Predict the 3D structure of the following.
Amino acid sequence: MKQEVFFKDLGLRHFKEVWDLQEILLKQSVEAKRNLANATTEQERDLYNDQIVNHLLFVEHYPVYTLGKNGKPEHILISDEDREKKGVEYFHINRGGDITFHGPGQLVGYPILNLDKFKPDLGWYLRCLEEVVILTLEDYGIDGDRSLGETGVWIDVGIPGKERKICAMGIRCSRWITMHGFALNVNTNLQYFENIIPCGIAHKQVTSIQKELDTSVPMYDVKERLKRNFEIVFNAYLV
């Protein structure tokens, strides 16, 4: 059965604002799940089931570096002083993964999903997120791929020295409710990545759809393709 997912495009926002929103949505569903487990009547079960809601948020962030919970601070190659001069924020956050950059021209997707309604398997979930991006890149004639042991979507994985990452991923999951997600470089200013070791992986490049095609692409078009592919891969419908 197709799952209903509430979609919202947040536009351009500061990272902390959207992190806080994700936390609120996740906590609402987690609390409803706890209550559901203790429900004693059909009426209570229906009430709490209705409070467990799937969401998909799209956003572009103002420039920010985020470090995953087990990431290494030494992968940040810029001083706090220089970072602040460049107007780039920094947060050490509660997702998996290492250091990455978010900024204008990058499409960030935050699914807050109840995996009990899809498949309670984080490996499956991450592979599905990758597949959504791979199918979207295929729409633009770009051959995206997975790299063994490295979450996200890459290009030219099998060519040493030419591997380049186009989409980073990092998630958090509580009681099978997800948050955080993926960051696809569309028309991103890739110079920001020069101040970090992206995802803690040295000696590999970062790229974007714009760089691969040698032309900028309309963000609205990428969003529509991602939404469609999300519905296909997750057997969902966005409302």
Q: What stands out?
A: The chain has a mean pLDDT of 95. The first strand starts at residue 3 and ends at 13.
